[in-house]
């Protein structure tokens, strides 16, 4: 089976053609600057075949057409014709509380995604554009929507309720939703498989640390999400590359009063100019921060320390929330590759019974146990694979 996985942003579209059973990726790439001047990349069998600027793609429809023509190209394509694509899976950011799992795209599903636009104003419209572009270009193919929020819908009310007037939950759906759900779900499945608990997840307690540009932690009890750090939107939780994470809401009133910012300017500061970039003034990239820190940059050092402190604190909080922890997992760009980052997060968590093995921890980008044999809590690196999860859901629903 061949599934086309699409992740559409407002001016970009990531794609992968993959086999959901083997995980084999036939081709992948990125359409960027859609509606501007257009940039198109296409990689097949691990090699970059097209990397071209000035490829005008006025809308997502032309972007999908460019993807399909590359896939079926007689010389560099990986399929003979579009008939070989069985179905299309779409990453959708916000499914509100409506979607507890992935769904086959029909008019009702599209309406529900549209209804969630106020909750995901930056992403949901773009995700819909991706879906509608595929419907236009491939009208007969089943399309599936996979939501970033769905895995978190098992959270209990005390985890998802905000302590503001309850009417805002009842009337306006203000609550914690959480994101990176597809990644957390993939990790939950892999971790349970490694622990030999796929068939009997009851009683397992896993904390997953998805640490990338955007970062979130998830407390997974009995294989289900019971809490996560992101909230109504992806700005909440631990500090990120450029996002502030949890802050005192008073800060907004104070700064808006002092500088006359309107709410849009304030949100831009919190979304794009904060996090480790905001503290360090150096970069949102953890490699740059480590380099600057090694050169004696104190704010880069502070930014890193703040980040590790908040991750460590969230791990402690989730161990408390679940009444213990069996496994801690690191994933995404920083979690999979940041050897010293992992060590610095784990420093001080020995009281939980989690002991990192420095040699085992010296690993990048592959599944590994990185705790010592006598560590009560197992610590793993597990590379995430959201695309595979999307492809598997798509396969199951398109059947
Ligand atoms: P996104 O959230 O955009 O998907 P990724 O999961 O790809 O992001 O993570 C990107 C982050 O991973 C960047 O901040 C980058 O610095 C970090 N990263 C990548 N490789 C390393 C490494 N070897 N050491 C530390 N951080 C790394």
Please summarize the sheet with the most strands: 8 strands, mixed
Low-pLDDT runs: none
Stated plainly, the CATH topology of the largest domain is called: Nucleotidyltransferase, domain 5
Q: Give the number of DSSP strands.
A: 14
- Structural classification: alpha/beta
- Level-1 CATH class name of the largest domain: Alpha Beta
Number of helices: 15
Radius of gyration: 21 Å
Number of domains: 2
List the helices and strands and how they pair.
Layout: E1 3-8, E2 13-18, E3 25-32, E4 39-44, E5 47-53, H1 60-71, E6 87-92, E7 103-104, H2 107-115, H3 124-137, E8 143-147, H4 157-160, H5 167-172, H6 181-195, E9 205-211, E10 215-221, E11 224-228, H7 250-259, H8 263-272, H9 275-280, H10 286-294, H11 298-322, E12 327-331, H12 332-337, H13 339-346, H14 358-361, E13 368-369, E14 378-381, H15 386-398
Parallel strand pairs: 1-6, 6-8, 9-12, 12-14
Antiparallel strand pairs: 1-2, 2-3, 3-4, 4-5, 7-8, 9-10, 10-11, 13-14
The protein binds adenosine-5'-diphosphate (ADP).
Description:
With 399 residues, the protein is α/β, with parallel strands linked by helices. The protein has 2 domains: 3-147, ATPase, nucleotide binding domain (Nucleotidyltransferase, domain 5, 2-Layer Sandwich), CATH 3.30.420; 198-381, 2-Layer Sandwich (Nucleotidyltransferase, domain 5). The chain contains 15 helices and 14 strands. The chain has helices at 60-71, 107-115, 124-137, 157-160, 167-172, 181-195, 250-259, 263-272, 275-280, 286-294, 298-322, 332-337, 339-346, 358-361, 386-398; strands spanning 3-8, 13-18, 25-32, 39-44, 47-53, 87-92, 103-104, 143-147, 205-211, 215-221, 224-228, 327-331, 368-369, 378-381. The strands form 2 sheets. The chain has an 8-stranded mixed sheet, with helices on both faces. Strands 11-10-9-12-14-13 form a 6-stranded mixed sheet, with helices on both faces. The radius of gyration is 21 Å and the shape is globular. Residues 212-214, 241, 285-287, 332-334, 337-338, 341 line the site of adenosine-5'-diphosphate. Adenosine-5'-diphosphate (ADP) binds at residues 212-214, 241, 285-287, 332-334, 337-338, 341.
């Amino acid at each position: 089976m061949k599934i086309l996985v699409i992740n559409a942003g407002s001016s970009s579209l990531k794609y992968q053609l993959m086999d959901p059973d083997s995980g084999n990726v036939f081709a992948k790439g990125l359409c960027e600057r859609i509606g501007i001047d257009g940039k198109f990349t296409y990689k097949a069998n691990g090699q970059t075949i097209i990397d071209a600027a000035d490829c005008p793609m006025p809308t997502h429809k032309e972007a999908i057409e460019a993807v399909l023509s590359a896939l079926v190209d007689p010389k560099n394509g990986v399929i003979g014709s579009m008939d070989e694509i069985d179905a299309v899976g779409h990453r959708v950011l916000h499914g509100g509380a409506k979607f507890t799992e992935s769904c086959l795209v029909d008019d009702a599903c599209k309406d529900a995604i549209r209804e969630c636009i106020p909750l995901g104003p930056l992403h949901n419209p773009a995700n819909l554009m991706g879906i509608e572009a595929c419907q236009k270009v491939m009208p007969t193919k089943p399309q599936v929507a996979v939501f970033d929020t769905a895995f978190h819908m098992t959270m209990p009310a005390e985890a998802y309720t905000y302590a503001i007037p309850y009417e805002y939950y009842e009337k306006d759906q203000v609550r914690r939703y959480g994101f990176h759900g597809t990644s957390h779900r993939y990790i939950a499945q892999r971790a349970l498989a490694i622990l030999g608990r796929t068939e009997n997840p009851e009683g397992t307690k896993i904390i997953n640390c998805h640490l990338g540009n955007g970062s979130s932690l998830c407390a997974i009890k009995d294989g289900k999400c019971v809490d996560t750090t992101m909230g109504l939107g992806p700005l909440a939780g631990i500090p990120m590359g450029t996002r502030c994470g949890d802050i005192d809401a008073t800060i907004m009133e104070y700064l808006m009063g002092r500088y006359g910012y309107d709410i849009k300017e304030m949100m831009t500061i919190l979304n794009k100019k904060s996090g480790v970039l905001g503290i360090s003034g150096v970069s949102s990239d953890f490699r740059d921060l480590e380099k600057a820190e090694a050169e004696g940059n104190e704010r880069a050092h502070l930014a890193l320390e703040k980040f590790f402190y908040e991750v460590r604190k969230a791990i402690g909080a989730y161990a408390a929330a679940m009444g213990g922890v069996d496994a801690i997992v690191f994933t995404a760009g920083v979690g999979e590759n940041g050897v010293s980052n992992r060590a610095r997060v784990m420093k001080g968590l020995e009281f939980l019974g989690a002991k990192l093995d420095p040699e085992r921890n010296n690993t990048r980008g592959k599944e590994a146990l990185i705790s010592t044999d006598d560590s009560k809590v197992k610590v793993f690196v597990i590379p995430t694979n959201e695309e595979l999860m999307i492809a598997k859901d798509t396969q199951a629903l398109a059947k």
